[in-house]
Automatic annotation (TrEMBL), chains A, B:
<protein>
    <recommendedName>
        <fullName>Metal-dependent carboxypeptidase</fullName>
        <ecNumber>3.4.17.19</ecNumber>
    </recommendedName>
</protein>
<dbReference type="Pfam" id="PF02074">
    <property type="entry name" value="Peptidase_M32"/>
</dbReference>
<dbReference type="GO" id="GO:0004180">
    <property type="term" value="F:carboxypeptidase activity"/>
</dbReference>
<comment type="similarity">
    <text>Belongs to the peptidase M32 family.</text>
</comment>
<keyword id="KW-0479">Metal-binding</keyword>
<keyword id="KW-0645">Protease</keyword>
<keyword id="KW-0121">Carboxypeptidase</keyword>
<keyword id="KW-0378">Hydrolase</keyword>
<dbReference type="InterPro" id="IPR001333">
    <property type="entry name" value="Peptidase_M32_Taq"/>
</dbReference>
<keyword id="KW-0482">Metalloprotease</keyword>
<comment type="function">
    <text>Broad specificity carboxypetidase that releases amino acids sequentially from the C-terminus, including neutral, aromatic, polar and basic residues.</text>
</comment>
Amino acid sequence: MSAMQELMAYQRDTEALGQIAGRLGWDQETVMPRGATEQRGEEIGALEGVLHARRTDPRIGDWLAKAEPADEVEEAHLRHIRRSYERQTRIPARLATELARVTSLAQGIWAEARGRNDVGMFLPTLKQVVALKREEAAALANGGDLYDALLDDYEPGATAESIGAMFDRLRPRLVALREAVLGAAHQPAPLEGHFPAEAQMRLARMLASAFGYDWTRGRLDLAVHPFSSGSGNDARITTRVVEAEPLNCIYSTVHETGHACYELGIDPDYLLTPLGNGVSMGVHESQSRIYENQLGRSRAFTGWLFQRMTEEFGALSVADAEAFYGTVNRVQPGYIRTEADEVNYNLHVMLRFDLERQMIAGTLEVADLEEAWNARFLADFGVAVDLPANGMLQDVHWSVGLFGYFPTYSLGNVYAGCLNKALRAEVPDVDAALARGTAAPATEWLRDKVQRHGGLYQPREVIARACGEEPSEAPLLDYLEAKFGDIYKL
Amino acid sequence: MSAMQELMAYQRDTEALGQIAGRLGWDQETVMPRGATEQRGEEIGALEGVLHARRTDPRIGDWLAKAEPADEVEEAHLRHIRRSYERQTRIPARLATELARVTSLAQGIWAEARGRNDVGMFLPTLKQVVALKREEAAALANGGDLYDALLDDYEPGATAESIGAMFDRLRPRLVALREAVLGAAHQPAPLEGHFPAEAQMRLARMLASAFGYDWTRGRLDLAVHPFSSGSGNDARITTRVVEAEPLNCIYSTVHETGHACYELGIDPDYLLTPLGNGVSMGVHESQSRIYENQLGRSRAFTGWLFQRMTEEFGALSVADAEAFYGTVNRVQPGYIRTEADEVNYNLHVMLRFDLERQMIAGTLEVADLEEAWNARFLADFGVAVDLPANGMLQDVHWSVGLFGYFPTYSLGNVYAGCLNKALRAEVPDVDAALARGTAAPATEWLRDKVQRHGGLYQPREVIARACGEEPSEAPLLDYLEAKFGDIYKL
């Protein structure tokens, strides 16, 4: 066997073990008995120890030195493996195992603290996680910026500076749009009523199907914080059900369907190779967000959805499809990021981006986080946080060590804006199909332009190739101003 | 750290990774999407490769040579680790990985073949599995008997000769009892009617609770072939629902509850150590069988169950609790081992024991298995097999490589007979509690006498210590003759 073949055979087992870690994560958040939490921490710690040992095996260095790529695909394989090897060899095995163990436990503590609205219960663990992540960042940064070192894990090539500049360009137009919308004379009505859990789940399945989810290679379950998990031929989605708020379940489902369809849409030749996963969190989020917003919250699709909801739940509190379109896109200064409308969403991310940069820089102590969060929330949204579960305890991310992850949500929104512009220019019948309850013309274009490539191209590159131009904030902002200007009759 | 401490720390991670393999097995048989079958095979293969490498790591040999046990517990740890090390180092890594991969795929193929009653579809895979198991047996046997080498994996210390002798002593009294029962003038009525799946699952949960199942450390799901899985603080059970046959779901549930309670009852100090699992399949089955039969099918408990079933399903087709007791214990020459009554059950096992010994010895070709099965079934039970799903395709075991496993079911029945005799002698209020719907006095005695010890004692030793005498077939046969003599008014 050549060095390239040996490396790829070795890598295949590592990818398979990485998939197993994903399965354990899914299990933990959907079906695992509560009493298993500590034991699961040890199990995940042991597996992460194995993965870390494999990813830092010195043979990889030898193979990388000798491997001769035959084509673009093999070059991309080597790029991913080299990147992982260089990052992982900087992290001591002890730290990798400890991080896996602590974050596994922290997730359970976070969930309980959130349920009890008890910040104090969560702080000691969060402090531990932040300390470990700072240690990891220092090992990775090699003298460079700590936050950039973490961000690079989720979005290769991105920096805090480039993200900060993006936010600087987004903020004024988003804030202006929000103020105009909130001050508008015309305000869509909220959706009121009781929406039984079973019917919501039935609708959720229908929605995943409408967006092309392959049920033979996935499944839908309930979770506290909806997520998607796995790749290749096993990409599962989760949702949540609140009986007074069916739009929560509906759009969580469509969002996670977008993530899972990305994984399921990757070229089967890339299965269990470094190209067999979505290339970055930003590109991943571009898929979930375009499914959720530009497609799922479009006038065309909400027209179809209005009919389905009427069938499932009887007459709704809003009169017709046009009113429902406004309701689905209602702009409000809510507490919760995952429930935020398209106008407010990125403002929620900006808050987290600034706070987590400070925590990683060491300029914000975990003990002061709640105060900082609440002050910033009041400043940005004009509303005081009422409960920790609506404030700093709302997201799972920090408990599981995901620092540098939040800004990829906004990158995803920006990329979704770019993709939507190109999609609409190239595919004429998107809305006609959505009005019939199928996203197929759109999802086929996305599979061909983005999803099937997996990790073949760099994140910005895959978007640029799909759109025929460099990504920028303009298409997203133009889309938002046009859509909400229309809905709010500005 | 001493050699003992180093060995135990290393072993802990291996145990944790072994638990992960169990979780994947659970996932595969309960929730995994069908399209993930092949990928899962690769995932399990990669994990088994890691486990095999860890279990054969030469450092274990060094630690074993230097480790000084401080007490009985550490001696038992070393005994388990030495045994595993000696067995595993005989199996080449390639064979271990190949076995894991092939049996993972074979399970899916078996399930499909069973569904379609298509033996031909299953044979090529089974042939592959048998060839690999013979190779494994040859590596393990080191010149000794091939079948004994496999049997020893499930029941340390047992041999085909000792099992054969046990069957020789069981068979005549069981056959005589069966003939007397089938020829009796009094015959209990079958249970007839339609029993909705939801109510059966509700009842299944109630039954697991009645037998002390700890829901914070387990869960109940559906599976094609009911099983229990996991240990420590995550021991899950599965059941199946046939709407015309609620007793299937009921006693599968109680049976698997017995297995899970054994794992959950082990001393928490043994968590993720070699003592933290049930000590053998025979002892495991003694727990599931005593829960299911000597307790669950007792007159006292079926009296309570009759009331609960009447509440769930309305009036039953049998008139009263006494008639229901007969119905639950009805003896019939059915096709399916897992549905067999207590009198026939071990006869089903004897058939499998003889056929699998021949397959491993190479005196029965896989291609001839169906004919051999059907001929033997007709001879033993007086009925011709109608469909492969009622014949050689009914059990999952051979597809997943479990050769040498079946006889442990009968060992478990024999051990359950011994334990029941001792339990009834020592604990006076077992039946009074069962009549009130709780097995607590019995399960507490079993936890104290058997379950909490985990792997501390040898299999026969743990039963002998619990009963105060060497295990033998007599208590089981005495119990069966008394019970069925009474029910059938012999």
